[in-house]
Design brief:
The chain is an alpha/beta fold. The protein is built from 17 helices and eight strands. Among the domains are: about 110 residues, no CATH class; about 170 residues, no CATH class.
Length: about 450
């Protein structure tokens, strides 16, 4: 039995209250179980209990065995001297605090059915513990939970983006540029794209925004791709030579230092995802006058957002996938899937953070609403949910389910999940069961 299960029972009074007795058989009446604490110190703060007509106020500590109080060193820690009640599953030892005062210790008596359901979930070998039961959950409860989870996911992404925002001195345009460049790596080339964005600031690119060749030269050159040892067929390629000539001038002007070209990966990639093509597409997006993110803030239609990222590489790449080697002619556009990735992982999270920090609820709401107008992702996680009977109608739901799978199912946080709670407590009379979580999640929080 895990302590968190006892925490759960205590917080929501899922135990036999009439069997909560002291050593003399006097009933302990719980007026308030206290505030759940996940940091150091007692498990519940500011609890209130009544014993023999006297009301006690203080903290509650919970262990599976009473002897664990000593095992964890609480008996010598003054932070636990204000514990008024020690709640355990097995009372195997008399316990004293650092003052030498004996703690009032009580065993919880509860329906073993609760433990059985909880154990069955957390010990289930499948990735989604409730995969055979989730389809029977009330759709109202499920949709409410997924709506909370999508905000939680946005907050998680916003926290990551906020760190980059701080690094850039709260420069929103530079931050957006770094995040966007990162996702042009499509996992395989994420790291070199991150290095590229760190080595080449947006400020330098902006100075040449009206000259696409210069922007491409800056990106390809700083990416280390203008090294003839990487593309030997390009030694007589006019486009390659022009880029090299332009970068030689710009690198001296701005004291630029290329990253190693061998960092870029081409194997195990479809040619349409080659970094050579992606860098040109990125150059097209960045070759605009004025701030890219400042434009995005004002956009209210998803179709307009798509048009910004639905671009094609420059004409040279119509007949090339790598420098110096011709191929059958085809326009190398970013593609719908890539645009969806940029919207879901870059545009919407940065917008959400911006609205949060600027106290613009309308922008936060717009960002989340955009998710409802983007097709659901099709990956191993969404397919797991689909096999469990849960469909994904849009990115709003696929993002929620991805977060649920990664942050709850994988970590077996069933006690913090409304679905898990419903399954565990099915058949029990509960108060506000739609909020019955060990750690209720905030609807929105400031980063």
């Amino acid at each position: 039995m895990k302590e968190e299960f006892l925490h759960y029972l205590w917080k929501y009074s899922l135990y036999s209250a009439d069997k909560l007795l002291d050593n003399e058989g006097n009933r302990i009446i719980v007026i308030n179980p206290g505030e759940y604490n996940r940091d150091s110190g007692p498990d519940f703060f500011n609890a209130r209990i009544s014993l023999k007509g006297t009301i006690w106020a203080g903290n509650v500590e919970i262990h599976t065995q009473s002897s664990h109080f000593d095992l964890h060193g609480h008996n010598t820690d003054p932070a636990f001297d204000n514990v008024i009640l020690h709640v355990v599953a097995y009372n195997d030892k008399r316990i004293f605090n650092s003052k030498g005062e004996e703690l009032l210790t009580v065993e919880l008596t509860f329906d073993e059915c609760l433990l059985g359901k909880y154990s069955a979930l957390i010990n289930k070998p499948s990735a989604i513990a409730c995969s055979d039961q989730v389809k029977n959950i009330d759709p109202v409860l499920l949709n409410s939970w997924l709506s909370s989870l999508v905000i939680e996911r946005m907050n998680t992404k916003a926290e990551f983006i906020n760190k980059i925002l701080v690094e850039t001195g709260y420069n929103w345009e530079e931050t957006f540029y770094r995040i966007l460049t990162r996702y042009f790596g499509f996992r395989i080339n994420t790291e070199p794209f991150i290095m590229l964005a760190n080595a080449l600031t947006l400020k330098i690119i902006w100075k040449h925004a009206n000259d696409l060749l210069s922007v491409e030269a800056l990106l390809y050159g700083t990416a280390g791709m203008l090294d003839v040892d990487l593309f030997r067929e390009a030694i007589d390629d006019d486009y390659f030579l022009n880029l090299s000539k332009e970068y030689k001038i710009l690198s001296v002007k701005y004291s630029l230092h290329p990253i190693h070209g061998w960092l870029w990966k081409f194997s195990r990639l479809r040619p349409s995802n080659f970094p050579t093509l992606r860098i040109s597409q990125l150059a097209v997006i960045l070759s605009v006058s004025g701030g890219l993110f400042s434009r995005i803030i004002e956009i209210k239609e998803i179709s307009v957002l798509r048009s910004i990222f639905d671009v094609s590489a420059t004409s040279y790449w119509d007949t090339h996938y790598v420098f110096g080697k011709t191929s059958r002619s085809s326009i190398k556009s970013t593609g719908k899937l890539a645009v969806d990735i940029f919207l879901i992982n870059v545009v919407i999270p940065v917008l959400f953070l911006y609205g949060n920090l600027k106290n613009r609820d309308d922008i936060c709401e717009r960002a989340v609403a955009f998710l409802e107008n983007i097709d659901a992702e099709n990956n191993i996680i969404t397919r797991e949910w689909r096999n469990a009977g849960i469909s994904t109608e849009s990115a709003f739901y696929s993002q929620s389910l991805i977060h649920l799978r990664n942050e709850y199912c994988r970590k077996r946080r069933c006690l913090n999940c409304r679905i898990g709670n419903k399954i565990i407590t099915s058949g029990f009379s509960l108060k506000a069961d739609n909020e019955l979580l060990l750690e209720p999640q905030p609807v929105k929080k400031k980063v």
